[in-house]
Amino acid sequence: MCTWRVRRHAEGTWQVLTPGGTQACARSTSQTAAISNARALMAYEGAHRLRVEGSAGVDEGDRGSPTGDGSAPGLVST
Predict the structure, then answer these.
(1) Cα–Cα distance between 56 and 74 in angstroms, integer?
(2) What secondary structure letter does DSSP report for 55?
(3) Which is it for strands 49-53 and 3-8: parallel, antiparallel or unpaired?
(4) What pTM value is reported for the model?
């Protein structure tokens, strides 16, 4: 199962990290926009999980399926 991540960047923007966590594939000025970008990428790639990390790198848990309705297989609730 692929897990995409949204994390605050040191420059103050929010970034979407690929499942391997090796690179940012999108940056946004707000967390909400980054989550939206991540969900669009997840829907295209067929991923099942999004993990959002807070501004201090604190894990805020899973945010649901690419559609936001929690229906994706493999969804883990925290």
Answers:
(1) 27
(2) T
(3) parallel
(4) 0.68
Show me where the domains of the chain are located.
Answer: 3-62
Residues 6+ apart with CB under 8 A from 42: 2, 4, 48, 50, 65, 66
- Rounded Cα distance between 77 and 48, Å, is 12
Residue pLDDT, tens place only, 12-50: 899 999 888 778 989 999 999 999 999 998 888 876 788
8 burial (CB, 10 Å; 0-12 / 13-18 / 19+) is: middle
Per-residue pLDDT tens digits for 40-65:
988 888 767 888 987 554 445 555 44
